Amino acid sequence: MIKSNRIYITWLKWPILIRMAVFVLLVITLFGTVISWIEPKEFTTVFEGIWWALVTVSSVGYGDFAPRTTAGQVLGMLLIFVGVGIFSAYFASISSATFHKQHRYSEGKVRYEGSDHMIVVGWNEKSNKLIHTILAEKRTTPIVLIDDTLKEAPLINNLHFIRGNATDKSVLERANTARASSAIITADQHKNESDADMLTVLILLALKGCNRGIYAMVEIVTDTQVINAELAGADYILNTSNMICDAIMEHRQEEKR
After folding, report:
1. pLDDT digits (tens, 9 = 90+) for 181-197
2. CB-CB neighbours of 199 under 10 Å
3. Cystine design at 183: which of 119, 128, 178, 231 (Cβ 3.0–4.6 Å)?
4. Where is the RCK N-terminal domain (predicted)?
């Protein structure tokens, strides 16, 4: 009794599409075998019976095999009624599963299974332009975007969206951070500068915790957090405040010339 319960539980753990496919194959095999017993002259082998059952249940109807006896015709009628229900339910399940998976993918709930990809944390105009630039130069580079503000994935080819907080280990696991090659962390524009930088450092620590060898580029807004970003393991730091100062100084030097 315990063994049968385990088998039943294992069966229920299988994906619904696989279970239905197995059930369809069993029905086709059963009806094909029975028809070969009922009409051995018309169906000389079990394979011919299975072929007839498959053609009948799929509503193709080649007509190369057909029952001649009343018992065989009754079995054929039963197979048609059963087959219509089975195949309708099977294809309906496939459509439902496909729609469900696409919906989960759009919502950022589907785990990324690739490797050597780039992770971009935070969705804003800067990351948007950055992603388009990278994909324009290296079209084969897979990019995984992690963000907790977007409701649906951006319509960008070769971009996999993961919705969630990048400091959450489960979110980083869905992004397959352990197999990523590089990461770019942009400053959160919804926070003040100090809080944005502290969040950037926390995300960096979480990324390095999942993949110590990942090449991490971070955007730091304030000078005070640059040292913390270096200690957290940042491989490249983009200091926005210094960039603005450097741009102004360069413009003044050009004016003096």
Report:
1. 999 999 888 888 889 99
2. 20
3. 119
4. 115-238
